[in-house]
Every structure is written in C-alpha cells, then in structure tokens.
Amino acid sequence: MLILGINAFHPDSAACLLDDGKLVAAAEEERFRRIKHWAGLPTESIAFCLKEGQVTLADIDHIAINRDPRANLFRRAAFLLRHWPKLDLVRTRLKNVLAAQSIRVALARAVGGEVRGKIHHIEHHRAHLGSAYFASGFDEAVCVSVDGCGDFASTAWGLANGQIRIQQRVYFPHSLGIFYSAITQLLGFRGFGDEYKVMGLAAYGQPHYRRQFAEVLKLQPHGSFKLNLKFFRHHVENVSDGWEDGAPQLGTLYTPELECLLGPPPQPGEPLTQKHKDIAASAQATYEDALFSILNEAHSRFSCFNLALVGGCALNSVANGKIYARTPFKTMYIPPAAGDAGGAIGAALVVWHTSRSPEPGQRTSARGQRTHDVAPSIHDKGHRRAPFGSRIAQPDPRIPDQDHAYAGPHFDNATLESLLRERGLIDHKSHTLAVTTTHDDLDSLCARTAEAIAAGKVVGWFQGRMEWGPRALGNRSILCDPRRADMKHTLNAKIKRRESFRPFAPSILRAQVAEWFEEDAEVPFMSAVFRVRREKRPLIPAVTHADGSGRLQTVDENTNPLFHRLISEFYALTSVPLILNTSFNEQEPIVCRPQEALDCFLRTKMDVLVLSGFFITRHR
C-alpha cells in the first residue's frame, strides 16, 4: 500500500511517502524553495518522495492531507453567528477550505499525471496525534496535540490503544499557540515562527508579570483554558496573508488593550530591556501552567504513564524538559516534526492504520514487486528505546516506530565530485581552498574533523540523508567546540547573524547524558531542554544557556553511526562527549543540497566544509 501524505495550503508545507507503513521519504517544501515556512502545495517535496520511491502519482493508492474542511462545521457556524467577523477573514477561510477540497485537481495540474488514489481528509489534530502515537512504538499512550489552530480547534487530547480516541478539544478562538505568538509579536519579533526567540529570551528574565498574564489567559476546570478575547484580533479580523505559494505572513494578533496591560513593543533597532525579558519569562511560565494543567488532567483521567505529545507548541523545548518534574508521566515521545509539517506523516499513518489489511506485510500488487530501498526512518521493531525515559512500553508490533529523522534527500560521491569539478575545486589549483578526498577512510575523516573542531574551527558538516523536522541533527549541521566561551560570538559574527541571547545546542553521546545533565533521558530530536550539571557548566560555556540549561540532542550509534563516531573522536581528544550543533544555514532554511552547503560555506567565514567524504579547508 503506497500512501502519499501532505501538509498543503498551510505554513510548513511538506510531503511524505509510506510503503506499507514504512517511511520511504519525507521533506519540507521550504528546503527546496529556499523560503522559510513555505506555504502552498508542496510540489517539490512530492516530486522528491515519488522519485525516492521510484513511483509515479498514478501508482499512489491513497493520498492523505492533514485538513478536513468538514470538521467542526456546527461550531464554525455558531461562531460566525456570535462574532460576525470581518468579510476578508471569511473570504480567506473559505479560500483555504476550497483549496483543500480541490486537492485532486491541484495535484494533477501541479505534479502531473493521473491521480488514481483515494483522497483522505484527516482532521488536523487527528493527523498530529497520528504522527506521535503511531510512530512512538507505545501500545497505549495519552496523546496530546497543542497547536495554534487547525480545523477550528487548537488543542485535542485523549487515549490511544490501537486507535486514537479524542476525548476533549479546545476550539477556536482559544489557543495556546496564538497566545504565545501574540506575546512574541509584542516583544518585537515579527517573523513567522519566531516563538523560539521568546523561549531563549525568557532565561534572562523573571516572571514578574504573571498577575497581568492571568487576565490574558485563564485556566479552566478539567485542563481547559480560555483567552480573554479583548486582547486579541485573530477571531474577528484577517491576520494571515501569503499562505499560498510563498512565505507566510502573520498580521498583528493583539489589540491595543494588550499594550495597555504590558506596554508597547520595542521599536525596530531598540535594545530589549529587562522588562521585555521579564515579559518573556512570564509568558513562558503562563504557557507552562496551561500545558501542565492539560497533561495532569489527561493523566488523572486515564492513569497511563506514556505520553505522546505533538503540535506546534510541542516545539517548546523549555516546557518539555519540565514535564517529568511537573506531571506523573514516566515515558514520552515527541516526533521530530511536531509542528504542521509532521501532519503529513500523521495523516498518512492514520490512513495506513485504518485502511490496511490484517496482515499488511503480506500484499500483492498489480504493479509488481518494487525494488527500491525503504528508508530506515520508520521500522517495525520488537522493542522501543523510548525517548525521554528509561521505562520502556511494550509496543504493539503492528505499529511502526520512528527513532530517527533522516528521511530527506541524499547525494552520492559521484554527484558531489561533479559539483566540485564544476566549481573548479578539483583538478584546478585554488588559492583559497584545499580539497582532500577521504571516501574510504571514515576513521580518518572523523578524526580530522574532531581535530578541527577542537582547534576552534567552525565546521560545516553535510552527510547522508537530510533531517525531517526543524532541527539539524547531525547531517546538515554546523559544528563547533562547546568549551570555548567566545564561540557564540564567533558563530554569530562568522555565519548566523542572529540575536546574542539565543542559545546553541549540545549534541551528546547517549551513554554520557547522566554525567553531564541533571536528567538522564533519550532526546534524539532535540526536543527538550535539561539543566547542565552545575560542575560541568564551566567546561561547556558555549552550549550552557543563561539559566544553566541546554537543549540537547542525544546521539545513538545505531541511528547515526557517523555522527556518533565524530563525537566519540572529539571525546577522546578533549574528555568532553559533546559538541556544539547548530543548523547549517545563514538566515535561510537549512541546506538541503550540496550546492547550497558549498554556497553557504563560500559566502561566510566558515573554516571547514566536510561534504560527505570531501574535506574542504580554507588556506590561511
């Protein structure tokens, strides 16, 4: 059974291909279009997935989209009667609904070929929950989706045991995602998806404005919450634009009443004050109170200790790192693409789980036996090495689990060599660059790279399949020495050009986590912030944030052996089992193809580029 899953006509457009529940390929459209959070129909991602699977659109049995225009229709109608939003808001919503309904025509026109597969519209939060539960390996789990908004709901949670049963929802216009986005804008961060900046800023403040925030977001019984709508505009005005074939734009979410309560946003170029930092800390604390209220209510209702957490708000790694301390959950899974892009896989997994035969591995196909390799991003396994905890659930063997995120494009050495020859870097003497080939000696490659990192070099690391999700997890990364206190400044000056208060992440060997962090857990997708042990903080200042924390990635030899080997080499050199890992980009989406990695290297002051087996250095 071939299933094409897509997140379309929405920010973070993406596509994936499943073959009998196994992930063949997955990628976000922004990586091909080179526009952050690109919104529209993900034609480039679809084309990549089809090529990777060696199939055509006509071969696809099912097409799953993570939107259902019919979901919550009565609530939508009741809301319109109560609030009478402005006409442009109604027009925009209707346009999005019609686009989702006409997906068959849009695919045939944009991708080419006949669309024979059955179209499935999967409700937004059910798709989110599917991306977490069906990929977790848990047989039973409390499933929680917390988002901005999708299909007229912002939050959904329930219990999954073979199938997902949603017990409770919070409906539009009440939304934790919109609450956090509004405060992000009030703090002067106007870009779509800038909420992570507030998380970084919060570490420098104290939650002195919690009393004011209690007027903005009100907790309700049974884990629910409400926004005080006098502070918001999203429910009566059109605040979204450019959500088709381009970069999403989000207008101002808040009303002047919020400025009266908390003060005006800083002017462009104006430095952030301690008050802004305290507002960020207060917003983070308020969000956490609401999240933990949901999680504790869900646990008390179902008495299940496994949690599958998902949705755009599940990217709040600061809150995620506190879940074990502030809830009873013992084991947790957060997928690598917890936001809307991940809904592509979630929708596909929901369809696979509900449409497959009783024995999905035993199938015949009129198309005959395909011979392409299936990517190892989703596999059937006999046990689960559960991220975020040591207690391992016994998984349902029918459900595949996703233990790494390497599902994107990959390039062989011949392709890379052709690019370097085309650029004149091989067989031509360069006055600025030196290229060494180490295809057949990975030990030497990792040792030489570790030496460069230990010497204070900034290294671009481009290997294997591109990561699925918003984090660079060791295949499209920039790597540095975490021991150097000046490395944050060096990175910002040479490449990243970003706010100085934002932290950089440590990638650490899984076996050494307990020695360096106060929490011992598996975090393969960089989805949680843990506190660095106090005695270790002076040793790794470049990855220790202002509050003594770090957003870690645990690196396992089984899921990324080359990255694990590199960190092990650095460990042998320095006695430090972790390195600074940041995304391979410069004010753009993470690099996807080798030419983008090479271009980023050439236009910045990066010292070394490791392009698969090619080791490229600058002459001094």
Could you explain how this protein is built, in words?
With 620 residues, the protein is of the alpha/beta class. Helices cover 34% and strands 19% of the residues. The strands form 5 sheets. Strands 15-23-22-16-17-21-18-20-19 form a 9-stranded mixed beta sheet, with helices on both faces. Strand 6 (140-150) and strand 7 form a beta hairpin. Helix 6 (124-136) crosses helix 14 (343-355) and helix 16 (442-454) packs across helix 19 (561-574). It is globular, with a radius of gyration of 24 Å. 52% of the residues are buried. Mean pLDDT is 89; it is low at 357-400.
Q: How do the strands and helices of this protein lay out in sequence?
A:
Elements: E1 2-7, E2 14-19, E3 22-28, H1 29-33, H2 43-53, E4 62-65, H3 73-83, H4 87-101, H5 103-111, E5 118-121, H6 124-136, E6 140-150, E7 153-161, E8 164-171, H7 176-186, H8 195-202, H9 210-216, E9 217-219, E10 225-227, E11 240-241, E12 249-250, H10 256-262, H11 274-302, E13 306-310, H12 317-320, H13 323-326, E14 331-333, H14 343-355, H15 413-422, E15 433-437, H16 442-454, E16 459-462, E17 476-480, H17 487-496, E18 505-509, H18 513-516, E19 528-531, E20 549-555, H19 561-574, E21 578-583, H20 594-603, E22 608-611, E23 614-618
Parallel strand pairs: 1-4, 4-5, 6-13, 13-14, 16-22, 18-20
Antiparallel strand pairs: 1-2, 2-3, 6-7, 7-8, 9-10, 11-12, 15-23, 16-17, 17-21, 18-21, 19-20, 22-23
